[in-house]
Amino acid sequence: MILRLGYAELYVTDLERARAFYVEVLGFIEAERTENRLYLRGVEEFDRYSLILTRRDTPGLGHFGLRVASPEALSTLEKLHAALGVPLRRVPEGTLPGMGEALWVREPNGHPVAFYHEMDQVHSFSIASSEDALPMRRTHLFRGIPPLRIDHMNLRVADVDAALQYWRDRLAFSVSEYVVKDGATFAAWTRRAPGTHDVALVRAKGPALHHVAYLVQGPQEIIRTADLLADAGYQASIEFGPGRHGLSNALFLYIRDPDGNRIEIYANDYPRDLDRPPIRWTWEEYDRRGRLWWGPEYPARFLETQPVNDRWPG
Amino acid sequence: MILRLGYAELYVTDLERARAFYVEVLGFIEAERTENRLYLRGVEEFDRYSLILTRRDTPGLGHFGLRVASPEALSTLEKLHAALGVPLRRVPEGTLPGMGEALWVREPNGHPVAFYHEMDQVHSFSIASSEDALPMRRTHLFRGIPPLRIDHMNLRVADVDAALQYWRDRLAFSVSEYVVKDGATFAAWTRRAPGTHDVALVRAKGPALHHVAYLVQGPQEIIRTADLLADAGYQASIEFGPGRHGLSNALFLYIRDPDGNRIEIYANDYPRDLDRPPIRWTWEEYDRRGRLWWGPEYPARFLETQPVNDRWPG
Amino acid sequence: MILRLGYAELYVTDLERARAFYVEVLGFIEAERTENRLYLRGVEEFDRYSLILTRRDTPGLGHFGLRVASPEALSTLEKLHAALGVPLRRVPEGTLPGMGEALWVREPNGHPVAFYHEMDQVHSFSIASSEDALPMRRTHLFRGIPPLRIDHMNLRVADVDAALQYWRDRLAFSVSEYVVKDGATFAAWTRRAPGTHDVALVRAKGPALHHVAYLVQGPQEIIRTADLLADAGYQASIEFGPGRHGLSNALFLYIRDPDGNRIEIYANDYPRDLDRPPIRWTWEEYDRRGRLWWGPEYPARFLETQPVNDRWPG
Amino acid sequence: MILRLGYAELYVTDLERARAFYVEVLGFIEAERTENRLYLRGVEEFDRYSLILTRRDTPGLGHFGLRVASPEALSTLEKLHAALGVPLRRVPEGTLPGMGEALWVREPNGHPVAFYHEMDQVHSFSIASSEDALPMRRTHLFRGIPPLRIDHMNLRVADVDAALQYWRDRLAFSVSEYVVKDGATFAAWTRRAPGTHDVALVRAKGPALHHVAYLVQGPQEIIRTADLLADAGYQASIEFGPGRHGLSNALFLYIRDPDGNRIEIYANDYPRDLDRPPIRWTWEEYDRRGRLWWGPEYPARFLETQPVNDRWPG
After folding, report:
1. What are the chain B neighbours of A132 within 8 Å (beta carbons)?
2. What are the C-alpha distances in Å from C131 to residues A232, C123, C128?
3. Which SUPFAM superfamilies does the UniProt entry name for this protein (chains A, B, C, D) (predicted)?
4. How far is D191 from chain B, CA to nearest CA, in Å?
5. How far apart, in whole angstroms, are the C-alpha atoms of residue C219 and residue A48?
6. CATH number of the domain at A149-303, out of 3.40.710.10, 3.10.180.10, 3.40.1080.20, 3.40.50.10490?
7. Which of B287, C93, C305, D277 could form a disulfide with C208 if both were Cys (CB 3.0 to 4.6 A apart)?
8. Neighbouring chains to D with at least 3 Cβ pairs closer than 8 Å
């Protein structure tokens, strides 16, 4: 019913400063701009945008969107969330630009989520001349890393097993890998798409956002990201990495935007069928090699999180 | 119901010679060997094997396997194929090593196909010590390119529109891109997984196999494949490339095994939701830039195909 | 006495069109522009420019420059060339922008060459703040491939053994590799820097220019060049490759600028001490694997050459 | 007179353990083995070896070798060192396998150095068939990273300005970059080859070895080194990085062999003519961005050094 993570909305305090960082340095494509919002996408996305930057007084997560397989799925999800007794709201087509009707909910763990089916596409689906190239075949116009497409959300929840009752049992997200600590689930990576995760759930004070991840091509682009940031004067934005996660197998660089929102630049995780059993990590092994496959050390600031929109679905 | 392409069986005339090529030069992992068969996989696969090399007098395609989402799907597919009136056969668990019960059919266009659900996994799904690393974290033991995982089959059929009645309309494969020539479909790339294709169908004398594709990491591995082959004395195995396809956006190198079976070494195509409209190419634009984005030239031998097993399901 | 190749001057018929190709698509840095000339460099060069594009009615090679180790070397070279009886001319500092006094000669094989010592540098050699970064640490401002630095010239001469009497015996260029055909030298790669060549000499109608080469980082940039050109509408500029030379071991892509001047995009050759013996190739092995390590085929248009300035030293 | 760094000798306490690390995991080529020594090289070297591992009770630097341009240079250097009054010894051809006559000295700062001209080559300099390929065209036989060739030594000296009187003023090493602290030179990168350094001199208790560096192809190989080590169970060998040096511009990963000898895996520094002025860094900028371009943090253990052979020239 749910296909994949579609987009995230982050709050920033200064749109111009955010644009310089995301568009001019990192190379996001600017799809649309309004007085209070920037709509961005990675260079290989067909959806018009996957990142919304909204001007607010404090940074953090506005909400994120999950694409569903059909318009009818919205009604099914509305009933499901009504039964759960969580705040919800049906919003009409065009509430966000280019997007069809949506269902906005505050999921049981407190994170603001939108379900939607329709989203404007950046391609006409017809190729008859040089002008009709696929979106990714504009490399002469790209800049920055560039980011390819949105990959996942990493969220904090007080009780991961409770959170899985929603994500796994109600929404049918498949757990790819998880960590057990003190007899309970410490963290779980869950997905509807075949990669290791659309939504990661980690035990900590929540609801809270740890990071939004964007996929890049590989090792060279991970290192290029650090270079670009340092070269452009954003040395302080480089938080942790480059490194390889043991859990998920991905290469990473964690960076902070000028408001402190954390973005993971991500490459090389792996697909696995959704019906396969989850992979279980002990806490000790996760702590030793799951977080950073190359060694146990990581910077303390990496444990900080960002707040989430507490007025959703408004 | 169908999840993805799972494996391919190719015929080779000399298993030792094939092993030298696939395992020692290209870096496939040898999962199992019997008197008449080699079972191989790429280095990031959880399934025990994705390529079966079977000793026969003439090369070509033995059959290929599609993984289904549940054991029950086999019965549904059995009814569907019985209604189509094509040859079919239910085979018990273990007919191929590590594989569950399967349905073998000759699909309406003449290609031998197996549907199956269960396949032995190479990981225990439990990570508590260094010995339990994910399959891809054995880089110190890998050799060759190495290939990561099977990606797709490219088949030849006399009438692509007719073939789509089976693949698209009966099996619910989604067309990602297609080419129109003389008012009919010249070629169609179809899939159940989010990438551009699990099965490509191209107009030519069929049933016939054009190639089996394996995914590699990126540009460096595409070039590395040509280097490995030339360095190891397999210069004649390098057929076409490196190049970039306009259709599918993928980087490629086409190579031939010592029996002439064609393997595509493949990287960098893109995912798109299965419910999105197919992308239509005109023949002229496909001929000019769809086959090779960098220019219209390609070697004549690239049009050759391999025969398929005509005794399946036997 | 001679350190390395310093720069090349190419003739183009349309400066704006050339600028679009070299600067906007390929990513050369524009150092200076006059009414009839563009001065360009690669992104890792300290010299202000390494490529001069001069407006002329017909394309081809204007001249190329060799940097010498000291100002005194110019007098030594002047005597040497006077003794050879070739046309020569001493030109004052500033004849080309930022360049010191130079010696212009038509070398015995007919190619126009400048010897010079001084060239403006793009860095102050003092790093005390973020503004003082090394030239290559401006990745946020780079575009295109980008090219890193000039690597070599490939010239055509009627008699390679005769040409070596000048390049090897008079100028002390060291031969890294050479090809023997019909009892004479068919081609020789010669250098003063440790790489495989500053100047290659190949038997054909000469004097003529085959190509000027620019170094890029590696396999990914070779493929990126073909992508950039095809994406930006310069499909016809992609001539030959990507491939690997057996002789020199380098990865290559040969491209043509809008006037037909050939540029080699080049990576991964190797250094060797200048006093080591040259590596000898038989013609048969060169033809089979020296030109293209992956196979003997190459496009016929790859044999075409460009004319050289016949009024130098003017 | 001096061409470049040629080789280094390191002490290890267990040759088998060292072989597993250098040959089986990192991919050095084993050129020769005696009871107490392993002779290794990178995969693109023409010299038979560039790293000697000698069994001793304690790890550290045995000595390192500098290749000179001619046999006659040894006599010139012998006089020079005799005038300096440092311990020296002329050793005959074959004292080390495949090496010509050499001059062994303890340089004025206490490091053991060998000067030599002749070294066996791994290629016959004649290519007439597939068997004669260049050394680097054996990729089907390589394993590990692999390392390409030796790049530089990093040494510790009490007084860098005093050390420069020897390296720069007597041996004519060119300083590429240097750091000034408290009115004196804190560190200097010196070279005879065009790269940023053959020998780096850094202020600390000396004589001491900080690291020996080997060149690899680029970003992907830097990351691959950390992966290989972690995958093969050498997680503790990963000390610092991947990162980019501001000074030298190089990508790096510092690793420790099983005896604690530090090896830098190194890529992407830049060439500059030896007659160009050195690049001066202030201490503050070096500390902020010279060591690690991406930020000021580095692990404390990175300041540790290894002892040097105090019985040379024996």
Report:
1. 285
2. 10, 11, 8
3. Glyoxalase/Bleomycin resistance protein/Dihydroxybiphenyl dioxygenase
4. 31
5. 31
6. 3.10.180.10
7. C305
8. A, B, C
